[in-house]
Amino acid sequence: MKTVSKLIVLFSFMLISAINCQQIKYPETKKIDQVDDYHGTKIADPYRWLEDNNSKETAAWVEEENKITQDYLSKIPYREAFKKRLTELWNYERFSAPSKHGDYYTYSKNDGLQEQSVINIQNGLKDAPEVLLDPNKLSNDGSVSLDGLYFSNDNKYMSYGISRGGSDWREYFVMDVKTRQLTKDYIKWAKFTGIAWFKDGFYYSRFDEPQKGEELKQKNEFQKLYYHKLGTDQSQDQLVMEDKQNPKYGFGAGVTDDERFLLVYVSQGTAPENMLYYKDLATDMAIKPVFDKFEAQYNIIDNLGDNFLILTNYKAPNNKVVLVDPKNPAKENWKTIVAESKNVIQEASFVGGKIFITYLKDANSIVSVFNTDGKFLYDVKLPGIGTVSGFGGKKNEFETFYTFTSFAYPSTIFKYDVKNNTSELFRKSEVKFDPEAYEAKEVFYESKDGTKIPLFIVHKKGLKLDGNNPTLLYAYGGFNIPILPAFSVARIPLLENGVIYASACLRGGSEYGEDWHKAAMFEKKQNVFDDFISAAEYLIKNKYTNSTKLAVQGGSNGGLLIGAVINQRPDLYKVAFPQVGVMDMLRFHKFTIGWAWVSEYGSSDNADQFNYLIKYSPLHNIKKGATYPATMITTADHDDRVFPAHSFKYTATLQEMNDGKNPTLIRIETKVGHGAGTSTSKSIELYSDFWSFMFYNMGLTPKL
Questions:
Q1: Catalytic residue (choose from 674, 679, 683, 692)
Q2: Protein fold of 433-698
């Protein structure tokens, strides 16, 4: 038996080596004579034609690239074994935390392999649940997903949004909760909005209907805020707020629990700063400003009578909570309730008459409770070091729920008693793996300029640090988004096979407040790439891995990150996964919502900003003849967040320019968008392909 096993392993190794030696014949992607003048600098864009997502030529190119990718992946002998193991792991019951609506509780549940989670409702926590809404019945392939449930204040109606094929466009419907029947109300062309109920209708935001055929490409500008009254056609909706002079203003609405105030948030791109307006709904007053300048971030937690409890970063980059009289909002009239501290405030809520503050301390959650005068009462005891979310509810309720997770701790739901500061286990997911077999730790390493960066490292207990372990390094680094400890069922096959998972908290996120974010914006974006490169160097220097066993992964802004760092240090990595990335930093603002990122990156329309964007733009810094890592680029046909042409043009250029020693493939998914709402089966297929590609190009055979 030992001899037979050795022969099988030897045969597998020979097969892998033989396939790796084969040269991939990429499509002969045509080039056109397109040259643009950026402030006196001529920049060629030979693959501009791939921006036409409606052309037959682009469709033919996509089909050929997908064929090459699938042909390559089909030859990996353990691809199906990865899929089988991931399917086994994914097949477990999982839930969201309950939300209370009058006497009812709602939550999502997935039996395991359902394409989309089902919304259940129950009267009390002990009664038998019933299905309120099953999105699996909205399509035959799981490509329609839910996005948000919003109950009217009398709990008679529920509005919900759907996304088709993962697009950011939302359609909204209204259901009678008691009868489960849909009303005639139907909202189209909504995007980047929620629903705020008031009496017999709701506020929402939408864009004008795009040109036919341009729905997934056309710029999204001039968002408007409307009020829809139940039983009427959308064409009759009341326009509440717009700005004809500022096409890039976005509008979001909220209504306080007591239906006293309408709150209108005005944003400008993805910048955290916003303006804030309000209306006293008990009177006929017009909408008035509370803060009419983009100088800070203002988020209303709730109203305390006539005053607003606000979370803000005004002169407080780590955030603070203040009480503001909207009729006298001058800063000198503010009352500080929870002062800024060395730990950043991530979230704040007001439940049962108490203020819940979720802090981040070195990217780990701490939850503290205060009274309305700002007196610290106590901390909520959490299960360990990790990430917490929840503590939602209404000001007159004394029961709430929260979810806790960490790298080896599947999402677990706890019920919390506000009066007594006690938690009890509510629901725990039974994933088919042993969390005690793994360990996670947080270390700090120095970036190029000496800044200390947190790095989470997860692996099997007892793993030998001999510099030869396969490792996956993940990061994001932007848009004020923190990367926190969280469980992922998709990573379990990696950990089971001795892979080290590392997650870096780069500058650009909110792990240490707005200063940490601003340290990687605009001309400082190179800090993000330096932080990531230094993380890779740390892992190699400290004998976790080496450059032939290191894979790197990031999505969206993180896809930009991966594209940039493999340009700057292609020698550091063996495998790269740039997912749905922003790859063309000169033209990103010309598609869908891309203009909104100018507040993070800058724009090539500005001469000074062009000069730093061109230095790191992934598309424009690919080196002719360089040895790039084995690279699998991913995008999707319904991604109207980061237009797929970013990945198309990047792929064509990388296939043309690199030395061909390692594969450059693009995986183009159908009926999928930027990532949210992706069905279970497509998620399993994606990660099966990722991990197969990773092991295969490292010359490793997993034990599956």
A1: 674
A2: Rossmann fold (3.40.50)
